[in-house]
């Protein structure tokens, strides 16, 4: 059987080209993703940046620790507490103590870097920064800058006033810094959460332990950082871990889609090849071949293709990994330092996975080949009478039923789970597989429906297209299936993101009833003077609020973090926002209560819950109202007394009766101008604040869809080329019947376009059904947002498939007509 398999591969190499290319690309992608995963697992420990030369860094409490019967539960605090004053006093006895401060600086006039950060000059030596031009700052309006974007002697306008650059230091790559004098930095950022100590680490730790033993409030949470741990004093020390986690999720999704589509392409190719070779298998059965020998022949063909394709894929992966790595770094999907290692296990994994995919894809086809009878295939007509087997029927219906049942169960149990990325990426796979298995059932009626009008037009073209496509069910289904997969993936993935973005935007617009919104220029928020000026604007009723966090221990085991909005007065909140209240009243919110949402385990109005604020302060608050779950952005609300010192970053403004809107807007803009704030209408702010899909998420989805489209192109071209030799005779018969070459080619092209249209409609139906599930989930979550089908993207994908199918069918037909000169048996 191996000899027969090798001979078949040599004579029918065109038939297996698509499987070979698809497997090779899939193995190459698996090798690349495996190398990326290996590199992320062996990622180097991030080195300290701002405090690389500091002996010891002492940081205030930044970790919330809640004891439970099963052990402590920890979470990173949203706001770091300052180092207690008694601790600072003890440290000053050991050596020089330098308080660190960080605050944003906005450069006006379009100059300078995008997001410079201010620091005291005394902390520059810990990076270390060294002056390369000018001198250190001495006056309140003097600064030293990194990167050389301003030269000594220049004056720059910022939200911190007009500053004079007196020196420059070379940038170190991790920040754009502006150094002020220590006194001026203390005025601009009075709150300091960490400091550098010029002393022995052991002495510093002992001083902190003594403070804890003496009962200094907050002393137990103070951290002494040395060595590599000093990186925790840098801004966003976990950004590399988060980036690598997202990168692994991206490559995992890409690898999963690659394996899914590879199996799909291989199984489709072998199934179509077995259907075309039924006469050949019948002759082998007549010559004495057993069903087991036929099955082993098909599997041997798949094994040979799998070995060759996997080996080629590993070579392609070795060359393709560096460019892909450069792309993910350039797109911000991976840290700038991310590089590939020299691991070899990803190649072993990719090779054997490719071989397994080839064998799995050919398994069903080999079973069908073994069922071929000695005379059955020789007597079978050219028309496909039984394209859908009982096993295909049962498998397709079982997958469809599974998809629908799991959807119903998810809607009944937790509709919000359907809005998570992992769910809306994997859920369409069941529907797509079920639709592909059941495609032969609907191909014939759908083809007749699409060609009903063309078939009635004068001429035979429309009639021939209808009969050819409807008669060759296997060929039509094999060509329509890959189009179905790609259109369905495009519609489901991009449609899910667009639908979710639209729902979140609708929520934001529904919640915002303010006439105007004043937004702070940075995380530092509005200062008290700015708030006083806003309150003094005639005709304006302001509602200041701050962004915060609240932690709650659920079921005694999970420490859950929720976004919170701290408001100054519930009455002002009710005038500028329309919260989706399910139970209770917003007006009942006070300093001893909280507004939660239905996602909380405890959401009964009047009950008390134990929570921890953003700085770790524990509170017991009464539930005043409960908000609907929505898309997950309906956070909790507290008063400013429970904001843990969070600065006011937003001021919603309602108009008093009879107030002139234009006059109020002008007064608001004048009030926030000194601080660099921005005033916009409520509608404009809601549109700008509506959360959209992140660039990394969109880039990842486009990568996945690009892979699917590539595989679809391979499958479409391969299927058409496989069918071309068998159709040469019927095209020649048309030519002898009086059809011109142009008419024959138009029939061929129109038939291919019709089949692509069938696949497109099936793909849109699958995407529509998938998005209908998300729409039902949003409706249950009280977010009446319509599903969004990405017509432009789906149309582009269908157009590419149409061009490929028409070209791949017309070119061989044109060559055959020219070579045979219209003779049917030539």
UniProtKB/TrEMBL annotation:
Keyword ATP-binding attributed: no
Keywords, ordered alphabetically: Cell membrane, Membrane, Transmembrane, Transmembrane helix
A Pfam family that the UniProt record links to this protein: FtsX
Membrane-related topology note: Multi-pass membrane protein
Domain ABC3 transporter permease C-terminal: from-to ranges: 254-373, 703-818
Sequence intervals crossing the membrane: 249-275, 298-319, 349-370, 391-412, 424-443, 476-500, 699-723, 744-769, 789-817
Origin superkingdom: Bacteria
UniProt cross-references to InterPro entries, sorted A to Z: ABC3_permease_C (IPR003838), Macrolide_Exporter_MacB (IPR050250)
Compartments in which it is found: Cell membrane
Family: Belongs to the ABC-4 integral membrane protein family.
Protein name, per record: ABC transporter permease
Species this protein is from: Streptomyces violaceolatus
